[in-house]
């Protein structure tokens, strides 16, 4: 892939992964992804800011060649996860004088994960700087976006923030600078949901810290570079806040039509009450889309038939993920059907312990729903609308 100068003497030398469709063997990647690596040339020293996924090491080395690099003094490693660090051992072989610049925690993890010898590191602390000659790198510890060792780098003279995973997006685009705001916002929201959402409280603190800094450009390690930082900082401030919107999300599975009938009836009742609704059929909904909608939904209603006494495994999986991602959802309920009994509600509730939600009366139908079940669904829709009015998202 071609290299690209994003500011004078700052060159994108990363790799695009157009074809990758799964990350961590878990997260779907409909838009592929990128591993952004940046070369910063000072008058005396040259630094590489993060590397790339080990599968793309060859591309990184070709890009360095294309950029005419004959010496790298520092490889700044913000984060030990292999999609940014995996190529470091080979870069160290090609540039034997290079030192890996990392904080103590990251150094220990890189030694564990990539077997990099301790002698190859230059350890830095929060606020420490490194002068490349007219370009000063300032290191900012930013734990839990999304690992405990994460660090950011601020290039003082150019006012560029290299933010690693933080503020990124899984998106492959041929040129590094943001060009399609809507596409990028959707990809960034999805990425926030899948990776950052469990750390909303820490994210708010990091955003506060960044507010006090003069930032002209944000260059994350996935997705595109933001020449207008407010674009992504404002979006993160909203997503990380406690504010939700007038949305009820209904992740569902139906085996023989009873649960589907209940979902469709409830969806209609909610719309009549003025509540926006998104039913997600878990047999084909991309789990990343579900996560994205969880970012600001006020209510989640899990809908499932009873299978072997509990929830359908696809619904149990969605509940497990929602619990792990800790969205700011405020109300929850469960609807579904059963043939002869079971403990579906109890087992689902047991998997939602992390969610600080108010539970609204579940609705269970024996077999296909009948009059009393529809009445109960109407009551649930009214209760959801009332709750949404209570938190000010529905007038
Ligand atoms: Fe993109 Fe946490 O690695």
What does this structure look like?
- With 395 residues, the chain is an alpha/beta fold.
- It is built from 12 helices and 23 strands.
- The protein has helices spanning 57-66, 82-85, 88-94, 104-114, 181-196, 200-211, 230-240, 258-272, 287-294, 313-325, 344-350, 371-390; strands spanning 4-7, 10-12, 15-17, 22-23, 27-28, 33-35, 38-41, 46-49, 74-76, 99-102, 121-123, 129-131, 136-141, 151-155, 160-164, 217-220, 245-252, 276-281, 297-307, 310-311, 331-338, 358-359, 363-366.
- It has a 7-stranded mixed beta sheet with strand order 1-2-7-8-9-10-11.
- α11 links the parallel β21 (331-338) and β22 (358-359).
- α5 crosses α7, α6 (200-211) runs antiparallel to α7 and α8 (258-272) packs across α12.
- The mean pLDDT is 97.
Percent strand equals 25-35%
* Cα-to-Cα separation, first versus last residue: 51 Å
Low-pLDDT stretches: none
Overall morphology: elongated
Provide a short characterization of the protein structure.
By secondary structure, the chain is an alpha/beta fold.
Q: How do the helices and strands line up, and which of them pair or pack?
A:
Blueprint: E1 4-7, E2 10-12, E3 15-17, E4 22-23, E5 27-28, E6 33-35, E7 38-41, E8 46-49, H1 57-66, E9 74-76, H2 82-85, H3 88-94, E10 99-102, H4 104-114, E11 121-123, E12 129-131, E13 136-141, E14 151-155, E15 160-164, H5 181-196, H6 200-211, E16 217-220, H7 230-240, E17 245-252, H8 258-272, E18 276-281, H9 287-294, E19 297-307, E20 310-311, H10 313-325, E21 331-338, H11 344-350, E22 358-359, E23 363-366, H12 371-390
Parallel strand pairs: 8-9, 9-10, 10-11, 15-16, 17-18, 17-19, 19-21, 21-22, 21-23
Antiparallel strand pairs: 1-2, 2-7, 3-6, 4-5, 7-8, 12-13, 13-14, 14-15, 19-20
Helix pairs in contact: 5-7, 5-9, 6-7, 8-12
The protein binds MU-OXO-diiron (FEO).
């Amino acid at each position: 892939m071609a290299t690209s100068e994003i500011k004078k003497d700052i060159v994108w030398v990363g790799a695009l992964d157009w074809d990758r469709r799964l990350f961590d063997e878990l997260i779907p990647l409909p838009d592929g992804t990128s591993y952004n690596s940046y070369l910063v040339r000072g008058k005396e020293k040259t630094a590489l800011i993060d590397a790339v996924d080990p599968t793309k090491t060859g591309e990184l080395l070709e890009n360095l060649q294309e950029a005419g690099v004959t010496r790298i003094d520092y490889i700044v490693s913000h984060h030990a996860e292999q999609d940014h660090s995996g190529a470091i051992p080979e870069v160290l072989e090609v540039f034997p004088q290079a030192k890996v610049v990392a904080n103590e925690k990251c150094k220990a993890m890189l030694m564990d994960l990539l077997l990099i010898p301790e002698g190859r590191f230059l350890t830095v602390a929060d606020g420490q700087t490194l002068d490349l000659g007219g370009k000063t790198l300032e290191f900012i510890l930013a734990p839990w976006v999304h690992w405990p060792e994460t660090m950011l780098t601020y290039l003082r003279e150019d006012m560029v923030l290299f933010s690693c995973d933080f503020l990124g997006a899984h998106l492959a685009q041929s040129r590094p600078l943001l060009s399609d705001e809507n596409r990028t916002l959707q990809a960034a929201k999805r990425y926030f949901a899948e990776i950052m959402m469990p750390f909303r409280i820490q994210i708010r603190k990091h955003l506060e810290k960044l507010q006090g800094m003069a930032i002209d450009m944000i260059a994350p390690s996935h997705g595109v570079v933001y020449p207008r930082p407010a674009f992504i900082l404002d979006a993160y401030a909203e997503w990380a806040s406690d504010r939700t919107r007038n949305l009820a999300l209904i992740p569902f599975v139906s085996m023989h039509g009873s649960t589907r009938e209940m979902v469709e009836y409830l969806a209609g009742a909610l719309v009549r009450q003025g509540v926006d609704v998104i039913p997600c059929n878990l047999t084909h909904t991309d789990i990343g889309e579900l996560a994205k909608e969880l970012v600001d939904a006020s209510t989640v209603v899990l809908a499932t038939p009873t299978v072997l006494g509990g929830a359908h495994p696809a619904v149990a999986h969605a509940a497990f993920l929602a619990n792990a991602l800790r969205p700011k959802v405020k109300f929850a309920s469960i609807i579904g059907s059963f043939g002869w009994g079971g403990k579906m509600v109890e087992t689902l509730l047991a998997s939602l312990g992390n969610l600080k939600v108010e539970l609204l009366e579940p609705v269970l139908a024996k077999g296909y729903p009948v009059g009393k079940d529809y009445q109960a669904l109407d009551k649930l829709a009214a209760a959801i609308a009332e709750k949404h009015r209570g938190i000010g998202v529905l007038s």
